[in-house]
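I had to read the description of the data format several times before I understood it. The format is easy to grasp once an entry is in front of the reader. For illustration, here is how one protein appears when written out as sequence plus structure tokens:
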Amino acid sequence: MGLQCIAANQLTTGGLNVAEERRPIPYRNLAVGAVMNVFQVTTLGQPMEVLKTHLAANRHDSLKDAVQKTWARGKWSAFYQGLIPWAWLEACTKGAILVLTASEIEYHVRNKLPNASPTLGGILGGIGGGFAQAYLTMGMTTCMKTVEVTRSKVSGQGVKPPGPLKVFFEIFREKGIRGINKGVNAVALRQVTGWSSRIGISRFAEESIRSATGKARDEKLRFGDKILASTIGGALSCWNQPFEVLRVEMQSMKSDPGRPAKATIVSTFKHILDTSGFRGFFRGVVPRIGVASWATICMVGFGDTVKAWVATKQ
């Protein structure tokens, strides 16, 4: 009877019986994700995020204009506008959720669907991770980061402009939870399409590198190969830039009397098309390629390496 129970819990893969094991969820990946995302945003991430957001909100400016106007607002510190507390808060939470969720989904795809490719696992992991990010943490923090970059910082009649926390509570008092989660559906579209592309394309690139170098499917890649695959995944994931422009426009505090009073994805889409044409949906794509590539390197390339190292310490 005991042997029958054991046999019933086995999977057959390519003629081999592999015992299906239950394992505890590695919650250490929450810490790995948080640390890696804070590192990403504090180094190159936030300056490129500020430029990308400026271009998406000011769609007639060039990249040179964005750099010059950002510098004029406060020199180097202006490129880190919104970093504290919103970008750090967002990085801690979304990074932790992404790495835990995506890693678990990829793990179960590998074990429950043994014939599935790593690319499929990466795509499904990115969809789940991006969805969890958007609706659990990023509605508020992404909105407030955009508010910080797009709101006026000019003092009027000697009155100091309000700080980020004061702005947060003003929005909350006036518009409630919906106000500080404005644009969350556009955030979800961006995150789901973005991370499914980043992780999926990165895994496809890893498979291609293995094939080109004659490595087996389960053989570890060199660190440089992981970084190359992550860079490719991050850069090619920027096909979804229109969702990012929609998100920024819905959350922007830039004065625009033509913007719909009650912004939805459809009404905001029409507004951008009417005012900036089709090209307006790709404003800010150059710095976003930088953001996406660096984020994928940190969360996929570096992240895989750190997860493996942490696992050996358990």
